[in-house]
């Protein structure tokens, strides 16, 4: 459930980026003039970029990235348009700082300093740490149910939700991996070319929505204690069909940010309400951990509401929010392990 908060925040943020026609920085005449000049000459001031190659008639000689250089070099470098935007943006921000003016957003994002070719290094680092926390939690969970807790005579765990949590862990790791890739470079569809939807954006959206839809299914199954396959299929089948159809709609028909936000927020709310009600009525000895995740996640979402420019071009509210999900993820997996221990103990008492 800890993933629900970051998914909702991310999708709302991306929706806002997709629907706004321009950021404050994009409408700055000096910035636009610099950008136009750079795209013609390949230079910003005295800085010229090797990616910007022009023929004698001023037509671009840029070829697909796989025709220009190896993948390991391409990943650390940027294309002509990205370099022009980046350097024009920071030149303009230096001028604004000298005049005592507050930073503004460009292409829907705050100005970030690149670090080894990475556009948002701290968000990438925190996404990687979240990936590591889910990996650690999944490994510890499997070790607990298969090697530490008693097993049935057929060597299967007494805990009936093992397979569901394993799938959840894999989907979570996939989502955080896609998040790290997405934040590693500024490859999202920009405001100036909002129809150019990038592959990393599609993967990030798909993995986030898939995890959110599955988490909703898991919340319903665990909260209602559904142990029979028939009951689980009745719950999961329509929700899986809807989630799959929604992802295919975004990929193959229209990348509708507004509709995607409504669907994702609705699934997230259903999940949060389900867990909250269950935590309020159950006598589970570790329900306090569930409340920590619910309350802590709600407080962490305030970082997305009260946004602020990145400190030293590196640390912004979104990066801090990514960091806040790390301890929540640890507590969440701790609850999952305690739940397996609790259910197994109760079943063993009934057997005896």
UniProtKB/TrEMBL annotation:
Assigned keywords, A-Z: Golgi apparatus, GPI-anchor biosynthesis, Membrane, Signal, Transmembrane, Transmembrane helix
Domain of life: Eukaryota
Transmembrane segments: 124-146, 158-183, 203-221, 233-251, 263-281, 288-306, 318-336
Keyword Glycosyltransferase part of the UniProt annotation: no
Record bears the keyword Flavoprotein: no
Signal peptide limits: 1-24
Bilayer topology: Multi-pass membrane protein
Compartmental location: Endomembrane system; Golgi apparatus membrane
Main location per the UniProt record: membrane
Functional note: Involved in the lipid remodeling steps of GPI-anchor maturation.
Membership in a protein family: Belongs to the PGAP3 family.
Protein name: Post-GPI attachment to proteins factor 3
Native species: Rehmannia glutinosa
UniProt lineage: Eukaryota, Viridiplantae, Streptophyta, Embryophyta, Tracheophyta
